[in-house]
């Protein structure tokens, strides 16, 4: 046989399994423009839906007159809340235990809210008809500030629940209050703060922004009136969860619903939730008996479907004189907009924000989050991060910097002396998490050495002298960030969404000729699942990755899973993949032993085959075993070679990273330039280093966007001021720096292959690195805290306020 | 958004004030004005087509004039609705100061806008509003530089 001539290493390499820089198989179609996105779907007789949206942020809807719109040739229907009410679909449940209007029911709560749904023969007619729908509004006072919203005389936003004293997450203390979520030990923390040598206090604002995926949200709903089966193609990050939700709210039996996520052009959390567009398209298809397509435009995407962040974080951090952190206190005012539609596991209304003790060994901590309604769009999704983890990372990494200022200490050294030590893992944090593994000191030393940290500080000191002497107008900022993420939600015992446990799944079928198909409960939106999951299987099963098809996103064929977000695909579905493969290998071992006429225990696994122990010339390859599984009657074994695994992770995974950003800042123009960015990621076992690097590049670029300019800003009237890409910052090649990537490997002890997840780490850790660089540039001149985004104007203002323009 | 400006009109104050109350002159000078009619003393109804960036819409609105201190000073308030394109409301304080044969018109206008037109970014809107008011006043000054009978 030919492969007898290959060494085991050569055979392993030929599989393109874990650790291989395998090229993305998806890119063959994407780079040719041959992807198949929702908007590429064209069905016979398909109609188009478009929304009439509110120009007001808060108003009563007095009347809706759709006569002129309905009279326009080509218009098939105009739906309003009145039409949906008899079906009970004018409101829908949100992922956060609240409910949300599908179409305005008497009032609107944010600008861009859906008021009526026009259905027409083509997109242009639908758009024209939208203009013809006359809506009479009565303006109401607008509240865009969450602190104002909680004042006693603030206008009542949610009239539907104004007398409700109990919400989905406990008592409500005001008509615009949603929930209070407390973690940790308040008494002990406040005692530590009182008695501490040093306490640094600061308000840190993480502004409202938006995931803004290249492809906006959309769907095609098609009700087959003959079979009674509803098929919905859509930009769904969690197709199975959407199927269950559609069934629960529509009353259509779940087996009669098929949800298909085709190619998705980026999700970043924006495509996790359920939106009025989906409900209206389904209803319109049922009413008209024809397929109905709805796709948002960019303005609609930015102003109505899920925003991210908007956390006001008040922090107090206590330390000894020599810099040992003794306690952390945090209160968050969380602006959730008009409806609480956050995408978080049910028991975590502020997500995993209680990871805010970060990478540090902090003995006591207390956290309290108050959710608040305002006249802004609903959402609060995890934009390229695990649930509220980027807010937590930004909070602690800013508080560390503020504490360093208070102590007059170097911020890198302050971090180093407070890191959780390697020998402390598994580490139980003061706010309740059990960190699985980590080696922070090694990563930190490696990072500091790689950038010549001492040298950079010397250069910075010299620059400050030159600036003071009038020789330069540019300052140098060194932005540090070390953060521990919490991803891979999650253990079913404490993680669910709408009661659905957050396990995930993989089903594998080995074909008679030794190739395979694997189906998963997740869905790629650009992460490259078809590439990496095949690599896990290649290593586990000894089948070349190129002989394995990975399929996701069709609920009629894929096993049930909770979808892709929060860096959960590799930690959860990746684990399911390995576990299902191991079931197959167990059966393959029995088949091999039968074929080799030895006992099961007398064969052992060797890359792509079972060999007889002590006699490696006698073996059966996976290819041979697969064929035997289908053509031999093996006593005691069923034919076929298939397996499925539903994996309930025992714990989250805790990837970490050390980032250093070196930034030049022009004091007179506020312009910035990233001179160097060093990113060390530890995501445990690395499946495809090239995809990891791509993920890091993409995540860092989104972090750059958020830190340096991207925001959803409102004026006092509740107008979205950043509703187009002219005002909403998306970095181009021009702004994007060259990133240096590096890594350490600390496997997760509880994950079958030791992998931890990486897609979101760079965004989580990148934002504080960029922001800290801006702050650090001005530290010598007295800057303590300046809110993001750090666009040129705001940086110029920092310099102005510090008197540097005099 | 606040706009202020000062324009010199080559006509005496009484004529300037009269012209500002003349629906025909106003209709000719307001950019995009399709219709303007007096609905009562000091009250007008107007239909105006506005184009701001990619948004073009017909605004219907009412304007009220407070002439307590006229002709030295007067103020205007109004609001207009453009359906899906959004809405605008605001007011202007205008003073007319005699300077020989000419009149100096000073105004401070406060405008609030909402909906799609507001979302296009304040930079674009401020520029457009300035351009439109400049267009109005240059047309207005031209109207008044014609012989009185015209």
From TrEMBL, chain A:
Question: Could you say which cofactors this protein requires?
Answer: Mo-molybdopterin cytosine dinucleotide; Cu(+)
One family from Pfam that matches here is MoCoBD_2
Catalytic activity reads:
CO + a quinone + H2O = a quinol + CO2
Q: Kindly give the Gene3D superfamilies that the UniProt entry links to this protein.
A: Aldehyde oxidase/xanthine dehydrogenase, a/b hammerhead, Aldehyde oxidase/xanthine dehydrogenase, molybdopterin binding domain
Q: Name one GO molecular function term.
A: anaerobic carbon-monoxide dehydrogenase activity
Q: Which PANTHER family match?
A: ALDEHYDE OXIDASE 1-RELATED, XANTHINE DEHYDROGENASE
Q: What is this protein called?
A: Carbon monoxide dehydrogenase large chain
Automatic annotation (TrEMBL), chain B:
Q: Which InterPro entries match?
A: CO_DH_gsu (IPR010419), START-like_dom_sf (IPR023393)
Name the domain of life.
Answer: Bacteria
Q: Return any one Pfam family short name.
A: COXG
What protein does this entry describe? Answer: Carbon monoxide dehydrogenase subunit G
């Amino acid at each position: 046989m030919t492969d007898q001539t290959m060494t085991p290493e050569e055979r392993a390499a030929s599989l393109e399994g874990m650790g291989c820089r395998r090229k993305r198989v998806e890119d063959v179609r994407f780079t040719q423009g041959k992807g198949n996105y929702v908007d590429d779907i064209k069905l016979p007789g398909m109609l188009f839906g478009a929304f009439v949206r509110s120009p007001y942020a808060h108003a009563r809807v007095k009347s809706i007159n759709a006569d002129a719109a309905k009279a326009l040739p080509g218009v098939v229907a105009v739906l309003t809340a009145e039409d949906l009410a008899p079906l009970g679909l004018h409101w829908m449940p949100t992922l956060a235990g609240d409910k949300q209007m599908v179409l305005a029911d008497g009032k609107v709560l944010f600008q861009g809210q859906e008021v009526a749904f026009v259905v027409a023969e083509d997109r242009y007619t639908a758009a024209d008809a939208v203009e013809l729908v006359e809506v009479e509004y009565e303006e109401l006072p607008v509240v865009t500030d969450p602190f104002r919203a909680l004042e006693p005389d603030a206008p009542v936003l949610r009239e539907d629940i104004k007398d409700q004293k109990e919400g989905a997450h406990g008592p409500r203390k005001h008509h615009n209050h949603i929930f209070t979520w407390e973690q940790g030990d308040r008494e002990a923390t406040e005692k530590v703060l009182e008695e501490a040598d040093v306490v640094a206090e600061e308000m840190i604002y993480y502004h409202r922004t938006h995931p803004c995926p290249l492809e906006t949200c959309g769907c095609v709903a098609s009700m087959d009136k003959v079979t009674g089966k509803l098929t919905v193609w859509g930009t769904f990050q969690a197709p199975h969860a959407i199927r269950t939700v559609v069934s629960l709210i529509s009353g259509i039996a779940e087996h009669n619903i098929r949800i298909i996520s085709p190619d998705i052009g980026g999700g970043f959390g924006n495509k996790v939730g359920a939106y009025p567009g989906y409900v209206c398209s389904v209803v319109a298809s049922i009413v008209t008996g024809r397929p109905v397509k709805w796709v948002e435009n960019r303005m609609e995407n930015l102003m109505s479907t899920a925003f991210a962040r908007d956390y006001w974080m008040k922090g107090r951090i206590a330390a000894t004189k020599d810099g040992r952190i003794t306690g952390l206190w945090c209160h968050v005012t969380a602006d959730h907009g008009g409806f609480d539609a956050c995408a978080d596991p049910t028991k975590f209304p502020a997500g995993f924000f209680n990871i805010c003790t970060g990478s540090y060994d902090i003995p006591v901590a207390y956290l309290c989050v108050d959710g608040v309604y305002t006249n802004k769009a609903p959402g609060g999704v995890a934009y390229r991060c695990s649930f509220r983890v980027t807010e937590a990372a930004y909070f602690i990494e800013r508080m560390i910097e503020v504490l360093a200022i208070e102590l007059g200490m170097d911020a890198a050294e302050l971090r180093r002396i407070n890191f959780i030590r390697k020998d402390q893992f598994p580490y139980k944090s003061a706010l309740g998490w059990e960190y699985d593994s980590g080696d922070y000191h090694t990563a930190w030393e490696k990072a500091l050495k790689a950038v010549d940290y001492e040298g950079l500080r010397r250069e910075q000191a010299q620059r400050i002298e030159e600036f003071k002497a009038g020789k330069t107008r540019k300052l140098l900022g060194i932005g540090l960030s070390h953060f521990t993420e919490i991803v891979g939600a999650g253990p079913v015992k404490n993680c669910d969404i709408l009661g659905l446990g957050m396990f995930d799944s993989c089903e594998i079928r080995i074909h008679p000729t030794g190739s395979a198909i694997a189906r998963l409960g997740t869905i790629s939106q650009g992460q490259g699942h078809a590439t990496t999951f095949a690599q896990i299987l290649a290593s586990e099963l000894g089948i070349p990755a190129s002989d394995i098809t990975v399929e996701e996103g069709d609920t009629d064929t894929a096993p049930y899973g909770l979808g892709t977000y929060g860096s959960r695909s590799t930690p959860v579905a990746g684990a399911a993949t390995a576990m299902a493969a191991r079931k197959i290998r167990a059966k393959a071992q029995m088949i091999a032993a039968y074929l080799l006429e030895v006992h099961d225990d007398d064969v052992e696994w060797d890359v792509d085959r079972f060999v007889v122990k002590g006699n490696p010339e006698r073996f059966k390859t996976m290819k041979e075993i697969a064929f035997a599984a289908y053509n031999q009657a093996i006593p005691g074994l069923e034919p076929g070679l298939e397996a499925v695994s539903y994996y309930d992770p025992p714990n989250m995974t805790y990837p970490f990273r050390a980032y250093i950003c070196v930034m030049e800042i022009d004091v007179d123009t506020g312009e910035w330039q990233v001179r160097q960015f060093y990113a060390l990621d530890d995501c445990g076992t690395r499946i495809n280093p090239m995809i990891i690097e791509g993920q890091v590049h993409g995540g860092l670029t989104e972090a750059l966007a958020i830190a340096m300019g991207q925001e959803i800003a409102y004026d006092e009237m509740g107008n979205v001021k950043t509703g187009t890409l002219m005002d909403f910052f998306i970095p181009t090649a021009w702004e994007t720096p060259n990133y240096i990537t590096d890594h350490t490997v600390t496997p997760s002890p509880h994950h079958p292959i030791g992998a931890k997840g990486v897609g979101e780490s760079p965004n989580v850790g990148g934002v504080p690195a960029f922001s800290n660089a801006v702050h650090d540039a001005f530290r010598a001149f007295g800057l303590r805290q300046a809110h993001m985004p750090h666009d040129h104007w705001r940086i110029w203002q920092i310099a102005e306020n510090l008197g540097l323009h005099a | 958004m606040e706009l202020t400006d000062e324009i010199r009109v080559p006509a005496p104050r009484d004529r300037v004030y009269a012209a500002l109350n003349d629906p025909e002159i106003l209709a000719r000078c307001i950019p995009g004005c399709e219709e303007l009619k007096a609905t009562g003393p000091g009250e007008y109804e107007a239909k105006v087509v506005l184009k701001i960036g990619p948004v073009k819409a017909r605004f219907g609105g009412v304007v009220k004039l407070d002439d307590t201190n006229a002709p030295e000073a007067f103020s205007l308030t109004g609001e207009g609705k453009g359906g899906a394109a959004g809405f605008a409301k605001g007011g202007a304080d205008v003073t007319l100061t005699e300077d020989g044969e000419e009149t100096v018109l000073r105004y401070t206008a406060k405008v609030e806008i909402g909906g799609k037109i507001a979302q296009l970014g304040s930079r674009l809107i401020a520029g457009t509003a300035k351009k439109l008011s400049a267009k109005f006043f240059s047309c207005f000054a031209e109207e008044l530089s014609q012989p009185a009978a015209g």
